[in-house]
């Protein structure tokens, strides 16, 4: 056997050993049957309508066994939307929910710079509509008092709040929140359930920042699959405070799901992260609205 043939034979055998060894990589056969994604969007998807874009999302979700998607925000994205734009984007999500009520859930997109209108929009979409939570992005940092009426209304209905956060080396946008801001808000509203979006991007710092604030959960979306992320989150926060999310179509379902499927955590913890935690957070709202769990 010449040198090239030997190398090809050895590499092929090694690759086959990896594929055949269940101890090397967790397989999807060990994953829970029910995977729910807290964080997905209509942006960055093909299609001219909300229905077409949601169909594309669900096509990819089906390949990976993702059962339900929580949608928020329309397209194209606006960082500081006026009231008319907020209503338009929420109407796009409502159209998707009407088309796929058993596959999609919705979080109402609100802007604290228009606090009075945001309360009206919460009532329209959540209190009187099918949505089950709140999405806040980068219009205003979430530690400001302008958010208090929104958080109070959400807490009264047990609607979770998903707050985007990031910790950028180059500096955040003027209205972009950090995990520190989330903690400040959560301590003012201990009855609210707040999800620290993206875990601040810098997840090692984000996990430490929110660790002592029990009404804050983290979600996993947005960052590259990194060894140790989910393991650290489960170890430091407890599996009950870690929620699977993708940020699709900004990121792929597969890359974000790999963080959990490949994590070295107990299967019971994996089941919580991939779906059971989100179902628990949403159970009061879903029960009140007559959703099938």
Instruction: Summarize the helix and strand pattern as letters.
Output: HEHEHEHEHEHEHEHEHH
**Mean pLDDT over the full residue set:** 90
CATH topology: TIM Barrel
**Envelope shape:** globular
Structural class, from helix and strand content?
A: alpha/beta
Question: What features would you describe in this structure?
Answer:
- By secondary structure, the protein is of the alpha/beta class.
- The chain has one domain: TIM Barrel, CATH 3.20.20.140.
- Helices cover 44% and strands 13% of the residues.
- The chain is built from 10 helices and 8 strands.
- It has helices at residues 3-20, 50-63, 83-99, 115-127, 148-156, 179-188, 203-210, 229-237, 253-261, 267-289; strands at residues 35-40, 66-71, 104-110, 133-136, 161-164, 194-197, 216-219, 242-243.
- Strands 1-2-3-4-5-6-7-8 form an 8-stranded parallel beta sheet, sandwiched between helices.
- The chain is globular.
- Mean pLDDT is 90; it is low at 2-29.
In short:
This protein has helices at residues 3-20, 50-63, 83-99, 115-127, 148-156, 179-188, 203-210, 229-237, 253-261, 267-289, and strands at 35-40, 66-71, 104-110, 133-136, 161-164, 194-197, 216-219, 242-243. By secondary structure, the protein is of the alpha/beta class. Helix 4 (115-127) links the parallel strand 3 (104-110) and strand 4.
